[in-house]
Specification:
It contains 5 helices and 7 strands, in the order βαααβββαβαββ. Strands 1-2-3-4-5-7-6 form a 7-stranded mixed β-sheet, with helices on both faces. β4, α4 and β5 form a beta-alpha-beta unit.
Length: 164
């Protein structure tokens, strides 16, 4: 049984730890160690997560399966007109393949629908197998883009959407 617990500022160290473990597994064959370390420091600093948690439209939830915290999901309601942006959903490597990600995406759809948005968008690295997962959940590519993220690094992504 999977459940979702709203994260608070006290959970920031845990979110940072989960991000580091999941990123080093998910991206080790896609991005350089230097880029992973840079992105983690930029996107998952305590200050950045704290600012996001204080934003009333930005929500972090811890993903709990069999009484173990196995990942997290972060999304922003009303990111643009009637649209929620899924910023992150990450699971520990040992939690993959157990339908937990699918349950997370269903949870997101319910949250989005109950908050009057009708579209979910996300970015996924073109080399990330997660693209197949998103497609299996009904997401479609609507654009491609290369995004400068600083420090000489770029992200080569698909932009995907799901309409509720």
């Amino acid at each position: 049984m999977t459940s979702f617990q709203k994260a608070t500022e006290k959970d920031i160290p845990l979110i940072r730890e989960l991000a580091e473990k999941s990123w080093n597994s998910a991206y080790k064959n896609i991005l350089s160690t230097k880029q992973i370390d840079y992105m983690l420091s930029e996107m998952y600093s305590s200050a950045v997560i704290s600012t996001q948690i204080k934003n009333s439209n930005y929500h972090y939830y811890l993903i709990i399966n069999e009484d173990q915290i196995v990942g997290f999901i972060g999304f922003e309601l009303h990111y643009e007109g009637k649209t929620t942006k899924l910023h992150r959903i990450y699971l520990l490597p040992e939690a993959k393949g157990k339908n937990i990600g699918k349950e997370g995406m269903n949870f997101l759809k319910e949250e989005v629908a109950s908050n009057a948005d009708n579209r979910i968008i996300l970015k996924v690295n073109k080399d990330n197998a997660a693209k197949n997962f998103y497609e299996s959940q009904g997401y479609k590519v609507y654009e491609e883009g290369i995004f400068d993220i600083g420090n000489g690094f770029v992200m080569d992504d698909y932009l995907m959407e799901f309409t509720i």
